[in-house]
């Protein structure tokens, strides 16, 4: 029988998870709470060995894990935590010390297939991968690396070559935690499991698409990290372009990660590179006073641009992307604006009927909402915008943390929640022309929607309003202020 070229090789289930950087910020805020949740649901039964340059012993790691889970707001179940703690242990030592990896080899000896998860700075990826290989720990094992995967197109290729010298592509996974978000996955499900949407998901019906990743908080104590990365590399090149790919891709021909990856690659391959002339960079007031930020820093904390996808389905439809720190609200949302009917039958000279929009809230209070027009009895004000939709938490119950799905996929060998390397390269190609510009970013006030120039992108009539919650009452058309905020 002929082998299906779209069928990916079977990936091994892990018998042990080794977590490099277990004492770090990512582990504390995301990974340890997610591992507790996986233990609670019965999905995590394998030992977890932490590796860190610290003086902790196993009990200290368990106390740290308990504090991390509690800080996430979880009511700890003592029986669940006892099972979780029993699986936790630690190997201590500097990553530059070969003795650390000798002790790790002794810790995993005889345990079977191992997954190594690198929750460490990207500058250490190659060093750790090489040290694992030097001890023979790259055999019968898989390597998982956090983002960012490189800092531009050339460095991404170089990193791939360096890691591939020790782990082949079937044993190398690249994390983009947005792909572990079930609400992000629902973009593809909504498109391809509902014939209600399929006919209108086309340039003939879609006027424009707006993708916003807004955060109302600043960089806090992450100044030194963020200043070296900036908004574009932190969330646009990876998270937002992955969302774009899910919005514009064609239906995959098979239900596996490789087929999905190929369709994402085709979509991104058809996407134009970003144009500096229609790109706005901003920096919130007070950013340069943050500890770890370089004096006179030109790192952007806000980014907005217009993009086009040059294929049969999406030609000439503008895609507007924006993201930033210290903005008016925290919201990650896709707004698909449909074309208006060809005749204005229900408005008038002074009243314009707003367009239909479909909203996907993919972080926080996740859900899907469509704004439809209805006529209010005995009203002369024209049609009324009425939202209909689904609040995922209310209908589906608790949504898994993105890192629950990432870590579960890493352990069982499910590549669906991880970035396909060809799409990583396309993402770097797309952002290439706007990386590291010489012009300084525009200042903007904290709590605003960024610099005013971001509201004047070519062809943009207005950003659709985003509230703190998806089903907050929408303001009537004409009452939106710049950037989607309330009018003055």
Automatic annotation (TrEMBL):
Positions of the catalytic residues: 239
Keyword Oxidoreductase recorded: yes
Function noted in UniProt: Catalyzes the oxidation of glucose 6-phosphate to 6-phosphogluconolactone.
Biased composition (Basic and acidic residues): 468-478
Disordered, as annotated region: 468-488
Ranges of residues in domain Glucose-6-phosphate dehydrogenase NAD-binding: 18-184
Listed PANTHER family: GLUCOSE-6-PHOSPHATE 1-DEHYDROGENASE, GLUCOSE-6-PHOSPHATE 1-DEHYDROGENASE G6PD
Family annotation (Gene3D superfamilies): Dihydrodipicolinate Reductase, domain 2, NAD(P)-binding Rossmann-like Domain
Listed EC numbers: 1.1.1.49
Reaction(s) catalysed (UniProt annotation): D-glucose 6-phosphate + NADP(+) = 6-phospho-D-glucono-1,5-lactone + NADPH + H(+)
Keywords annotated in UniProt: Carbohydrate metabolism, Glucose metabolism, NADP, Oxidoreductase
Annotated residues for binding of substrate: 177, 215, 234, 325
Ranges where the Glucose-6-phosphate dehydrogenase C-terminal domain occurs: 188-457
Highest taxon of source: Bacteria
Enzyme class: oxidoreductase
Family from the record: Belongs to the glucose-6-phosphate dehydrogenase family.
InterPro entries: G6P_DH (IPR001282), G6P_DH_C (IPR022675), G6P_DH_NAD-bd (IPR022674), NAD(P)-bd_dom_sf (IPR036291)
Pathway listed: Carbohydrate degradation; pentose phosphate pathway; D-ribulose 5-phosphate from D-glucose 6-phosphate (oxidative stage): step 1/3
Binding-site list for NADP(+): 53, 94-95, 147
Protein name: Glucose-6-phosphate 1-dehydrogenase
Pfam families cross-referenced by the UniProt entry: G6PD_C, G6PD_N
